[in-house]
Amino acid sequence: MFTQAELAADLRALGLQAGDQVMVHSSYKSLGGVEGGPPTVVEALLEVLGPSGTLVVPTFTHSGTTHFDPLTSPSHNGAITEAARAHPRAVRSWHPTHAVTAIGPAAEELVRDDLERGALGRGCALDKHIQSGGWVLLLGVDHSSDSSIHVGEDYGGDDRHAGGISPATPKRIVFTHPTEGEMEVVVTSMMGNVVLERQEELDAWLRERGHQQEGGVGEAHCRLVKGSHIVDGCLDMMKEAGQYIHRL
Q: Is residue 84 part of a domain?
């Protein structure tokens, strides 16, 4: 059984430092046994980041969502993300399908206005994280779980109509506003997947350029990389494949 101190030591050895801002995609089972369960993993991350760092996790409900309450709807991204959502200092964005949760001094700014943004596109909370120099930690998962890829695809002009959601075929979601009660939110785009389907190539692209730090945390194999490098890799791969449109 791994302790909080042991996990924190592994995270530091991987390259995570005090004051960092990091988006964590995770598999709790990959760590092996952890004393105290998923909340211990969250506390280990916060211990390493310190009071000036910010932890960000996906607490998505995904495109099948019919009703979303940012205060109560559980995360569909695993036990660690749900533990972070339940943390007393957690702040969750209001995006109806792809809300993130953040803990730390940058949390409020990251999630602000997320309700008005497209799913994992330009201007969303994750894009703000990337633009501010944030890291991405893949804790026991690979780039198939890396949501920053979708931000890169949007910058490259990829089709955002996954799941049949488009301006012509919008999705309507009942949103419970924390102060104003229930209202309807109309979603007209979702995300692309041209690079996500080539995640192994992106993994190689990042390694070849020395952008990706790898190591173990508990029993999990982990990757630590700047979000901006993931976006750069996506754009490079889209240009090479002739899929780069670049619309602003």
A: yes
